[in-house]
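ESCALATION

Customer reports they have been waiting on this structure for their group meeting. Please prioritize. Original submission:
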Amino acid sequence: MKRINLIITILLFMTTAKAQDKTTENPFFSPYRTPFEVPDFKKIKPEHYQPAYEKGMVEQRAAIEKIVSNKEKPTFKNTIEALENSGVLLNKVENVFSNQTSANTNKELQEIAKNLSPIMSKHSDDIMLNAKLFEQIKSVYKDRNNLAPDANDKNKTFNLNLEQKKLVEEIYKSFVRSGANVTENKKEELRAINKELSLLALQFGENTLKGDNNWKHFIASEKELAGIPQSIKDAMALDAKNAGQEGKWLVTLHKSSWIPVLQYAQNRALREKVYTAWMNRGNTGDEFDNNSNAAKIASLRVKKANLLGYKTWADYILEDNMAKTPEAANELLMNLWNRSLPIAKQEVAEMQKMIDAEGGNFKLTSWDWWYYSEKVRKAKYDLDEEELRPYFELNNVRKGLFEVIGNLYHIKFIERKDIPTPHPDALAFEVQESNGKHIGILFMDFHPRDSKRSGAWMSSYRKQSYKEGEMVTPIITNVLNFTKPTADKPALLTFEEVETMYHEIGHGLHGLLSNSTYNKLSGTAVPRDFVELPSQVMEHWAGEPEVLKMYAKHYITGEVIPDALMKKLQDSRKFNQGFMTTEYLAAAILDLKWHTLTTSELQNPADFEKKAMDEIGLIDEILPRYKSGYFNHIFSGGYSAGYYAYIWAAVLDADAFQAFKETGDIFNPEKAKLFREQVLSKGGTDDPMILYKNFRGQEPTIDALLENRGLN
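Update from on-call: job pushed to the front of the queue and completed.
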């Protein structure tokens, strides 16, 4: 008996020791032993996430309990700051997990996400609907104008500073908007809605990714590819070879694959097939269909908005944005709609004239637009986009971009091979002030793969903040889906891809150059219709002649882009803007239509879309940029009732760049310094219009936007 007990004791000891070893081994449970404490991606395994989430939730619950059990008078320090500093481990693991599931996912991570979604929804609700905690927050909020940071410290007589007051207001507002004021029985209903919404949004995004990856069209005869440039065909052949179909050509739903087919393929049936596949994503009636998910999400949002005291989801969302109301957002959209649609109709007539002249016995359709607009551009401006590609080699574009930023903000980017990256394809750069002071880390991940969702975005693995007076430096990522290199050519970009790189680095700068005390207010923690200003304003530099000469160099000869070709690009900048603006506006209006629903009755997405587009008079030749079945921005991302933000911010960015142009120097040091100090560094520490006026000296006007797009 003693021997058996001894064996059991030894086994228990070994099991406990093994468990402790596993705990010790979990990279999330201790500081990363890497330069600048960048996540140790090589050591982080799927099995580490769930235990880290669980421990993080336990730690945050304990921190919350400490706040609510404190018998002292609620103060900024013991309530607001304590809440802001809770959840350190949870933020640490969430930042890695959410980024990896977007840019480097797999079945294992997707299963973990499904399991965690309802758990995290409940954890969040347990905090946001905690009545005792809210009462303490409300107490501080009511006293915020005459409250010292710590009322219990007799030596502190000064009031809260602007950022501290803003943090109080934002935390109070987030609790109210999460349902802290609703009755107890409604809180349970709210919990159920939040849980279901979290799972539906996850499923929507997963279906979109799987649907994108599932569609592949192999082409056996090169004759079918007539008109497509050789560089594109080489990339298609390489994709087919990598997919096990050597000797064929592969078209996928990655943007760098399907757009060239639509632009150049003479085979109209091929264009129709590819375009239809793209536009029907999530509307295929198969396992990846998103119609039901979209309808349920919209319905639940109506119910949630009503529970919180709002007429519609858009009223709820926009209250917290610059627009404030759906009516204000819709007014801007319809103003631009009425200017852009007539121009789009002129573009249709121009292309139809070309079709007729060629003897084509058909009416222009949506899958013809890209092909014939490219032909019209070539005829009008003698510009073929393929002429530009050799001058837009990815690394040259990136180096030129870094030079532009250096000229504006006096910072530099140093590639670091010793820093772990989120994926082997990603590059790591240390960002420094001109004097060598460390600012942060930037990852850049350029090319599509099955584990990465489509599109382009910026995110953070660690946001900038201060801890005990010391700067916590940011770790930022730019994720893109650009044209891949081929066996004999480097990655040669389109000008649209160049602009996308500039756009995402603008978001990156918003995160990197942040100088806020609190995580909740730092970097991109601003209203949706302001967050696109730093990104969109950067696009203006990409096409400026003096900037083009910095990066547009022939990948073989090193020759700077010729003046004649650069002039063609400049002359064509307003080309096709009727289409570009109209297809965007159609999607933004569709978003608002979904989110100004006043009924929770389930809608049929196809019927709903048709009715919405018929009401505004969208022409048959144009479809919305995003249709409901794959509109990740609004059904899986953070842009519900907010897709209008891109055009709202476009008014700001055009006006902001005009401020530089007015000085005669697009690198004007005073304007750049003001933009960095008043916009990029401030995060959400002040009202965005105040920040903008601090930079510009006045409110923005729509004039520069109309001029840029030829809509005036």
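Sent to customer with the following note: The first helix runs from residue 2 to 25.
Escalation resolved.
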